[in-house]
Amino acid sequence: MKTFKVTVDNQTYTVQVEEIAEDSNKEAVKPSTNPGIQAAAPSPAPAPQKEVAATKQEDAAKPAPASGGGYSLKAPMPGSVLEVKVSVGDSVDDGDVLLVLEAMKMENELTASQPGTVSEVKVKKGDSVNSGDPLIVLS
Question: Does pLDDT of 54 surpass 60?
């Protein structure tokens, strides 16, 4: 059993917490001797934010089917377009740099994930983009 002092709204409370194993049927928190303090049911742990953010960025970087049957390169993060390296009609191979995006003072080269022909360029130099915005459509 551990005893802690907790201050809430400039009011100090003394609480006692008993550490138990997860599979134990013992009571996790004993009632406090202070009036007005009630034991709360444990809440589930929140999902790790780093993993959620990484998943969103990975999903944004994957090519998404475009309305015309091609694939769309989406912005993996918010930023500013520094340079567009392709134009409509250009043929690109897997790994070719399509544009340069500045995000958090870093230059990020966004590349083609598959070979194709540029059918649409939706941004120009200087444009600000949000995560998930379509940038270039390949067919």
Answer: no
- Topology given in CATH for the domain delimited by 59-138: OB fold (Dihydrolipoamide Acetyltransferase, E2P) (2.40.50)
CA distance 43 to 62: 34
Model confidence pLDDT, tens digit, residues 71-105:
899 999 999 999 999 999 999 999 999 999 999 88
Cβ neighbourhood burial of 107 (10 Å; 0-12, 13-18, 19+): exposed
Tens digits of residue pLDDT in 57-75: 444 445 555 555 578 999 9
3-state secondary structure of 5: strand
User: Residues with Cβ < 8 Å from 71, sequence gap 6 or more?
Assistant: 63, 64, 65, 113, 114, 116, 137, 138, 139
